[in-house]
Design a protein that fits this description.
Order of helices and strands: HHHHH
InterPro entries: Transposase_8, Trp_repressor/repl_initiator, WH-like_DNA-bd_sf
Organism: Belnapia arida
Number of helices: 5
Largest sheet: none
Protein name: Transposase
Distance between the termini: 87 Å
Mean pLDDT: 78
Family: Belongs to the transposase 8 family.
């Protein structure tokens, strides 16, 4: 009975596969990630093209873009604009008491 774990039935190994290209679990610096993301943001460039050029999975590039978008949104401090009524916007003098009693938005 033949076993699957035999080394080609005692003859030796018949085929050797040599893997070329980058190894797995590469460590990417923040600068490299930023370069890849910047390339994908150019007009007419697809994420798949950039991923192939850098030998990365497109899903990895999409993940980096998502993380960069979140970091950008988290770093922005919300700015609140004060509400100005039309009466106070038109005149340079402060509104009177009667004008403050009537809300206008």
């Amino acid at each position: 009975m033949d076993s699957v774990s035999d080394d080609a039935k005692g003859i030796g190994y018949r085929r050797v596969e040599v893997l070329t290209g980058p190894g797995r679990r590469r460590q990417w610096s923040d600068d490299d990630k930023a370069r890849v993301i910047a390339e994908t943001m150019q007009l007419g460039v697809t994420v798949t093209e950039v991923a192939r050029r850098w030998q990365i999975s497109p899903q990895q590039v999409f993940d980096w873009r998502r993380l960069a978008r979140r970091a950008t949104l988290a770093s922005k401090v919300p700015v609140f604009v004060p509400i100005v009524s039309e009466a106070s916007a038109c005149s340079s003098e402060p509104p009177t008491v009667a004008a403050r009693d009537t809300p206008t938005i």
